[in-house]
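Q: what does this look like with flavin-adenine dinucleotide bound?
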Amino acid sequence: MEQIHSTDTYRAIAQELAANFAPRAAEWDKSRTYCWQNVAELAEAGIMGMTIPKEYGGKGASYHDAVVVIEEIAKSCTLSARIVVEANMGGISAVMAYGTEAQKRFAAPLVLAGDKPAICITEPEAGSAATEMTTTARRTGDVYVLNGRKHWITGGGVSRLHLIFARVLDEDGEDQGIGGYIVHCDPDNGVEPEGFRVAGREHTLGLCGMPEAELVFEDLVVEDDMVLLPPSGFRRGFADLMNAYNSQRVGAGTIAMGVAAGALEHAKRYLKERHQFGRPLAEFQGLQWMLADMDAGVHASRLMLHEAARSRGPDGSIFPDIMMAARAKAFASETAIKVVNDALQMFGARGYGDKEPLERMYRDVRMFTIGGGTAQILKTQVAGQLLGIKTPQTRDGYAKLAARAGE
Ligand code: FAD
Ligand code: COA
């Protein structure tokens, strides 16, 4: 039987992969193409779906081992690191935790073979206010029929497995809460289910090889066996699904930290290589202090992310704690943008051009205070947890809470 690797073995595997990925990263970025070659190598090395339990073909690796791998990969190729996150800590975690036996047996092999599942939450009119989503899944006979539109869906057009969040309506149109719907595409063969359409791709600042797509659902039929029923039912479905999503937030924060750690390594090299005023840049105290601050930021981010990866949510949930995940992702993403910016500064004009990877890293890292819950939204969640209060953001939110308390 296959042994679970030690953390050090995972790190070594990731470092080897990252060394192969480094020279290719600029090419995916420039050509705006998905890194299929890297995906094949990640699958071959057992990194795709490493957190999937052994009985379903994965390695049963912990989230902590996954973040160790993600950091190493992110140092050289942000695009590949995003794929590793989604293959271990995104929609697949929700399916493996909440899914039926048949759903798990269906999803696991797809990911192990190289699929990056897509998680479909955001809509044009429901970004941070995700609970205001208007995509509906209406009970019609013994199936659900989905209608609506999602945008900024990472992997739309290349992903096979899609986990679509939708507002569940009963046969009479009554709101039942929010559920997850598993939809399978086969983009290699140009097959999309009837009623499912990739309507467009965004032109992005960074992570250019990753499609960010708009998806449209027009009477998309989902059979009962592909409904991911959250453990507390549809009424609490959003909370359960977001609980699983906390793992993705830890993974995303780790990519940002990994990019920053990579930029720090480049900066250390260059400060010794480059001479001005007859001395290596490394001897200038102004840059030494910048470097020390960069190191502290990366180190603090790593500690928070590892703590979050090892944590558990309420009632022994296997997912990271909501507050630790939010705190770590907000901190790591804001810190990484600053660290990469400072590293680029140390390279002077060379950092601004494409002979070094800094300009790509600078563009890649920018998204992490936006995608997966903005830094502002995450801090609001942290504050709510710190204060032990609900923090409604709608204009009448506090009035509604007060009215409910008085009932
Ligand atoms: P808005 O919600 O319109 O916010 C605009 C600004 O206002 C932000 O700065 C925000 O922080 C601030 N703001 C909003 N509300 C508040 C508040 N109450 N208090 C303080 N500030 C506030 N979504 C998916 O479902 N699946 C994906 O795979 C996915 N991938 C993505 C990949 C990328 C590269 C990006 C950029 C986005 C992705 N998203 C994805 C969408 C992402 O989750 C949303 O962009 C995010 O939730 C914010 O929504 P919004 O862009 O509509 O911004
Ligand atoms: N983990 C666990 N539970 C969560 C959660 C998380 N990350 N986010 C929300 N919940 C729970 C809340 O605790 C709440 O449960 P309660 O009713 O027992 O208090 C329930 O879900 C609804 O959350 P609430 O904060 O009341 O919702 P809201 O209508 O005020 O909307 C959010 C705010 C949750 C949508 C907003 O904070 C958010 O996370 N937006 C970002 C969306 C996002 O990350 N998109 C990424 C797409 S890839």
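The mean pLDDT is 96. The chain has three domains: 7-112, 118-234, 237-387.
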